[in-house]
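Entry 12.
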Amino acid sequence: MHANSDSYELCAGVPSVETFRHLRTVAGLSDRAPEAVALALPNTWYGVVLRHQGEPVGMGRVIGDGGTAFQIVDICVHPDHQGQGLGKRIMAALTEELERRAPATAYVSLIADGPARFLYEKFGFADTATHDSIGMYRSMPAR
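Predicted 3D structure (tokens):
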């Protein structure tokens, strides 16, 4: 179902908790608990929602402290709408806002899953492992 790219609208903001969880899971990303999502979304520094005929089909967010550290997260496009450069549109909107508002000394990071690294490289992101730093993560234990 490839539609004309002009039929998509990219708006600043964040989706509902339900839409956030749905878009993540249909795009192959891990689900998040609704309580956690409800806490997270209002703390978004900048987010975008991509809509097709009014329905949310993609999203992306920037989180961070607003000054020194930012992370790009939750970039996803519904599988029915992939392959049309929509992820690139989402990334462009997020990086434009970072370039406009974030201090020049800010550190912007992201975790690239699989072939997404090639998209992120187009926006100036480089592999940290080639430097003296390496990306690391820790999951929280179940309660």
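Annotation: The CA atoms of residues 10 and 50 lie 4 Å apart. Residues 5-127 form a domain with the Aminopeptidase fold (CATH 3.40.630.30).
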